[in-house]
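User: Predict the structure for this protein chain, please.
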Amino acid sequence: MRVGLGYDSHRLAEGRRLVLGGVEIPFEKGCVAHSDGDALIHAICDALLGAAGLSDIGSHFPDTDSQYKNIDSKILLAKVVELLSQKRLKINNVDCTIVIEQPKMSPYHDAMVQTLAEVMGIEPARLTIKAKTNEKMGFVGSGEGVVCLVTCTLDEPTDSVNL
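Assistant: Here is the predicted structure, written as structure tokens:
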């Protein structure tokens, strides 16, 4: 079994769309980023890539490359899942935490789980998404940003285990 940890944060600003977990969320602010700014998917990608020993999201999809400008992060996640498949790694579990003061995430929870499970090709029961506030502390608490943390486990093919 392999374990990965992912983290991403984005500044929130007016005039941007807020997309988290592949779901557009109506709000007056959105994530400032080169891509669509989906901090949850970016953290998932980093967790999966880390567990697979494949570096980080920036090494695969650099923000200096124009082909990733405003890209839908679900496309990036699908490419990461393909990289895992090439290494014969299977996603076992993905556990996510979104830290954002506003808006509330509960109305979008089920849509995020369905969307992400579909992109990753896993059963929804293998994906957990939790949302927390930062109790009005720091840049998240003041409404300036969002933070996402993800842990995951990957299963290696049994024939590759060294005994």
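The chain is about 30% helix and 30% strand.
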